[in-house]
Amino acid sequence: MASNDRQAREERARLRTYQARQEVHTRKARRRTRDNVIAVLALVVALALATAAQIFYFSGGPGAEPAATATPTPTPTPAEGENQGDVPSADIAEDRTWTGTLTLNDIPLGVELDGAAAPQAVSSEISLIQSGFYTGTSCHRLTTEGIWVLQCGDPSGDGTGGPGYSYGPVENAPADGLYPAGTIAMARAESQYSNGSQFFIVYEDTTLPGDTGGYTVIGKVTSGLDALRAGVIDAGTSDGAGDGAPAVPTTITAFTIE
C-alpha cells in the first residue's frame, strides 16, 4: 500500500508539474500573440500617419498627387461648390489691372494682377496684401523637376495654412495648360473651392494638367525674375530633391499693390 501511495503522489506531482509547464507555455503564446498584434497595429498606424502627412503636405498645388496638383492644402477643406468663411467681395478688384512689388528676401519683383480676368482671386489678394497678411510669411516649396514653381503665402510655413477662408471656383486657367515663366497663380487642393492665400510663381514655362480645372492665374511677374532665380531658385531645394523647401530660406519681406 505504501508503495502505491508513493506512486500516486509522484503521479500527482508529475501532473502538477506538467500542468504548470503547460500554463507557462500558454501564457507565453498568448503574450507573443498580443505583442504581434500590437506591433502590427503600431505599424499600420505609423504607415497611415506617414501617408496622411504626405497627402496633407502635397495635396494642394501644381504637380501634387493624389489630390490637386502641387500646392499644399489651404485649410479648412471646403465643401465642393461652396465658399467658406469671410471671403472678400469680388468687387474689390474693380475690373482693372493692379501693379505693385512683391519682395522676397529683399529681391523686388514687379507684379501685375489682372482684376478683370480673375476678379474673385485678385480681390482676395488685394485684401490680403493691403492688410499686411503676407509680410513675414515664407515661400515653403520649390519644384525643380517636371514643373518649375516657387510656392509662397502660407502663414504656417509648411503648406497647411491659409487666411481663414477659402473660395472658388477656378478663374482664368489656361485652356492649353501652359503657364509661361512669370505667371502668378493660386495654389489649391483638389476642390476648386480651396483657393486661399497660397500662390505660386512660375519661373520656367510649365505645363500643368487641366483635368481637375487648372489653377487661377491672377497675374504675372513683370521684372526681377532673373534676380529671383540667381538668389533663390538656382540653389535648389534643401535636400536636393526635385520638390521641397528651398535651400535658401525665402520670406516675403514686403508686398504692395495699387
UniProtKB/TrEMBL annotation:
Look up the EC number in the record and give it: 5.2.1.8
PROSITE patterns with a match to the protein in the record? CSA_PPIASE_2
| Gene Ontology terms for molecular function | peptidyl-prolyl cis-trans isomerase activity
- Domain of life assignment: Bacteria
Pfam families in alphabetical order: Pro_isomerase (PF00160)
Residues in PPIase cyclophilin-type domain copies: 109-257
User: Keyword DNA damage, does the record have it?
Assistant: no
- Entry keywords, A to Z: Isomerase, Membrane, Rotamase, Transmembrane, Transmembrane helix
Please list every transmembrane segment annotated in the UniProt record, as residue ranges.
37-58
**Bias type Low complexity, positions:** 65-82
Q: Where is region (Disordered) located?
A: 65-89
Q: Is Metal-binding given among the entry's keywords?
A: no
Q: Which PANTHER family match?
A: PEPTIDYL-PROLYL CIS-TRANS ISOMERASE CYP38, CHLOROPLASTIC
Q: What is this protein called?
A: peptidylprolyl isomerase
Q: Which organism is it from?
A: Agromyces cerinus subsp. cerinus
